[in-house]
Amino acid sequence: MAEVVLEHVMKNYGSLYAVNDVSFTVNDGEFVALVGPSGCGKTTTLNLIAGLLPISGGDIAIGNRVVNDLDPKDRDIAMVFQNYALYPNKTVFSNLAFPLQMRKLPKAEIASKVAEAARILDITHLLERKPRELSGGQQQRVALGRALVRDPLVFLMDEPLSNLDAKLRVQMRSEIKRFHHNLGATIIYVTHDQLEAVTMADKMAVMNGGFLQQYDTPAQVFANPVNMFVASFVGSPAMSLISLQAVSRGTEVVLQSAEGWELPLSPANARKALSSTTKNVVLGARHSTLKLHKMQVSGSVPGKIYTVEPTGDVTFAQVFIAEAVVNISVDPSVHLSPDEPVWIEFDQERVHLFDAETTSALTVR
Ligand SMILES: Nc1ncnc2c1ncn2[C@@H]1O[C@H](COP(=O)(O)OP(=O)(O)OP(=O)(O)O)[C@@H](O)[C@H]1O
Ligand SMILES: [Mg+2]
User: Fold this and answer.
1) Ligand 2 centroid vs 43 CA: distance in angstroms?
2) Which of ligand 1's atoms lies nearest the C-alpha of 11?
3) Residue 363 within any structural domain of the chain
4) CB of 18 closer than 6 A to ligand 1?
5) In terms of domains, do 203 and 301 share one?
6) Ligand 1 atom 30 nearest Cα
7) Which keywords does this chain's UniProt record carry (predicted)?
8) How far apart, in whole angstroms, are the C-alpha atoms of residue 194 and residue 209?
9) What is the CA(292)–ligand 2 centre distance, in A?
């Protein structure tokens, strides 16, 4: 296995920059998820690493070797795509053996490599079947096996689970995690599903509009999103964002809504709010950090129930606060009706503040 280093990587199609000055390092044996909305440049980034597209600028290194000008076949990578296209007329064994036969490996070595891959992926009992005799998840494992037998430096996977139904996707998620764990493989995994990234990866690279927004562990990205885009992309339901104005009141700083209510800030949050380029500040809060009250309590702000979504274990209330819709999780036993007035309490230790002009997270320097 090997590390993969991207330095200032660019890919443009005329004036469109599909990948714009992207730099990150995938350590040897790490599982990195590339995430972001449709069109943000995930597949392009993966194809640049694979060598399926020429880069317009920057450098890509795989295992200490700059591969900018190397053909895909010389990069020692294996790709698994969304459409895994197995050979329909070949058995599972032959599907796995084919890439090795192409490399003219001795028969005995092919047989042992296929047996090993089949064991890791638990498809030994399927080796004599044809792809049409397999379930979607089994076919996906054969596609993984075909990458695995090649014993590459790096696995590149582009939305390999998106053709599977929701239940199978969750199951394959843990299988790929085991695959990574058992092999200690370097994996770069593209998905638009932030939940897949958060649950599977050691690190996630969040992209938007060709730019890398944040590269860190899922826990760090979740706890300390660097800007409003990352804050609202990672986490489900999304972090709620409320546009307010920071106003000094003597020694205090409060956040003021257009409706007139004021939320006093803790000293640490006050310093953050004052570092904003303008008075316009965005308050961010995750559903689990908010408390909903049916009566006004000190430090709470008024809102109105928009919708209520019971999910069984937990009920999600959407509450209108200062022209924003805010997600709050409440106990299923709490009865709430649309348009009911409620009061929301923020946890000062766990709110996020963003500069409304730059969209960056405000931090205390
Ligand atoms: N051959 C091409 N010519 C021109 N523009 C392209 C080409 N290939 C991709 N693009 C553009 O580059 C941008 C990034 O595309 P890319 O396929 O990397 O997105 P993605 O993040 O993988 O999206 P998705 O989640 O929909 O697969 C998009 O705006 C796309 O339209
Ligand atoms: Mg894509």
Assistant:
1) 4
2) 12
3) no
4) yes
5) no
6) 39
7) ATP-binding, Cell membrane, Membrane, Nucleotide-binding, Translocase, Transport
8) 16
9) 39
**Shared domain check, 254 and 218:** no
Written as six digits, the tokens of 280 are: 């316009």
The answer to whether the CB of 38 is under 6 A from ligand 1 is: yes
Cα gap 224→362, rounded to integer Å: 10
Q: For ligand 1, is residue 41 a contact (CB within 6 Å)?
A: yes
**63 in a structural domain:** yes
Question: Which domain-ending residue is among 183, 200, 224?
Answer: 224
40 CA: nearest ligand 1 atom: 21
Residue 342's domain spans which residues? 237-355
Q: Does 323 lie in the same domain as 258?
A: yes
pLDDT for res 122: 84
- On whether both 168 and 263 belong to a single domain, the answer is no
Ligand 1 neighbour 160 (Cβ under 6 A): no
Do 203 and 296 fall within a single domain? no
Q: Please give the pLDDT value at position 124.
A: 94
Testing ligand 1's pocket by substitution, the residue of 20, 43, 82 carrying the most ligand atoms inside 8 A of its CB is: 43
Give the chain's length: 365
Q: E strand or H helix at 67, and its extent? A: none
pLDDT tens track of the chain, all 365 residues? Answer: 799 999 999 999 999 999 999 999 999 999 999 999 999 999 999 999 999 999 999 999 999 899 999 999 899 999 988 777 799 999 999 999 998 999 899 999 999 999 988 988 889 999 999 999 998 888 888 998 898 888 899 999 999 888 778 888 888 888 888 889 888 899 999 999 999 999 999 999 999 999 999 999 999 999 999 999 999 999 988 999 999 999 998 889 999 999 899 999 999 999 999 999 999 999 999 999 999 999 999 989 999 999 999 999 999 999 999 889 999 999 999 999 999 999 999 999 999 999 999 999 999 86
Nearest to 117 by CA among 94, 83, 147, 159: 147
Q: Extract the tokens encoding 137.
A: 């998840």
Domain membership of residue 365 (yes or no) is no
If you take atom 7 of ligand 1, which residue's CA is the nearest one? Answer: 13
Answer yes or no: do 24 and 59 share one domain.
Answer: yes
Q: How far is the CA of 222 from the centre of ligand 2 (A)?
A: 23
Q: Across the chain, how many H-helices and E-strands are there?
A: 9, 20
- CB–CB of 268/349 below 8 Å? no
Ligand 2 centroid from CA 183, angstroms: 26
Are both 28 and 52 inside the same structural domain? yes
CA 306 – ligand 1 centroid, Å: 36
Residues 186 and 285 in one domain: no
CATH number at residue 290: 2.40.50.140
The two three-digit tokens of residue 11, written as one number: 């890919």
CATH number at residue 194: 3.40.50.300
Does residue 10 contact residue 20 with C-beta atoms inside 8 Å? yes
